[in-house]
Design goal:
single chain; 6 helices; six-stranded antiparallel β-sheet; alpha+beta
C-alpha cells in the first residue's frame, strides 16, 4: 500500500466513517469510539465480512505471552496454531487499541516467503520539512514488530503510569485501570 493510499484513508476516508459511527451511537463529535464499533459499522456497509474476522485478544502489552498471542494471530492469519502453514500467506491487518488510540498494523507477504509488518499511526507527528502527518514504521520480521510495539507502548506511559506499573502487578480483574492494557482485532482475507 503506497504512502499516498494510506494518507487518502487517514485524511479523507476515515473521518466520515468515524463521524457516522459516532452519530449512530449518539456520541458527540470528538468522543472516543472503540475499534469494534467501527468494525461493526464496516460489516453493516459490507466493506468487511464477518468471515474475515480472525479474532480479538488483549491484556498486558508488556507481557510477552499476552503480546505473543496477538503477534501469532497477525503472523499466521489465524487464531489456531494448527492452521499456521495454511494461513501464513493470507493478507492480514489489525487494529491495536492502546491508551485511547488506535494504530493499524498491516502484514506484507514478500515473494521470498518473508513477512514484513507496517505499523501505521494516524496521529500527526512532525515530519521532514516541518510537515505534520501520520507515520508508517516498517518492521522486516515479527521480532522487529514486537520491539516496535514495546517501544510504542513505553512512549505512551506518563510518569504516573510508570509509578503504577512499578508498584502493581498485572491483575486481569483490574485491567480497565491498568495503563498496560491493550486490545487487538485481527482481520484476514
Amino acid at each position: 500500500m503506497s504512502d499516498n493510499s494510506i494518507e487518502e484513508v487517514i485524511d479523507n476516508k476515515a473521518p466520515p466513517i468515524l463521524s457516522a459511527v459516532r452519530r449512530k451511537l449518539g456520541l458527540p463529535g470528538e468522543a472516543l469510539i472503540i475499534p469494534s464499533d467501527v468494525h461493526d459499522y464496516l460489516v453493516d456497509l459490507k466493506l468487511l465480512r464477518q468471515d474475515m474476522f480472525v479474532g480479538v485478544c488483549g491484556g498486558n502489552i508488556l507481557n510477552p505471552n499476552h503480546l505473543g498471542i496477538f503477534l501469532n494471530m497477525l503472523k499466521n492469519g489465524s487464531s489456531e496454531e494448527a492452521e499456521e502453514k495454511k494461513n501464513s500467506t493470507r493478507k492480514v491487518a489489525a487494529a491495536l487499541f492502546f491508551h485511547e488510540h488506535v494504530v493499524s498494523i498491516l502484514k506484507l507477504n514478500m515473494s521470498n516467503g518473508d513477512c514484513w509488518f507496517d505499523l501505521v499511526d494516524s496521529m500527526p507527528k512532525s515530519r521532514e520539512g516541518g510537515r505534520m502527518g501520520g507515520t508508517r514504521t516498517r518492521c522486516k520480521d515479527i521480532n522487529a514488530l514486537e520491539v516496535v510495539l514495546r517501544e510504542y507502548a513505553c512512549s505512551k506511559f506518563s510518569e504516573s503510569n510508570c509509578m503504577y506499573i512499578d508498584n502493581n502487578l498485572w491483575d486481569d480483574i483490574l485491567c480497565d485501570f491498568d495503563p498496560r492494557v491493550f486490545q487487538a482485532f485481527v482481520w484476514a482475507a
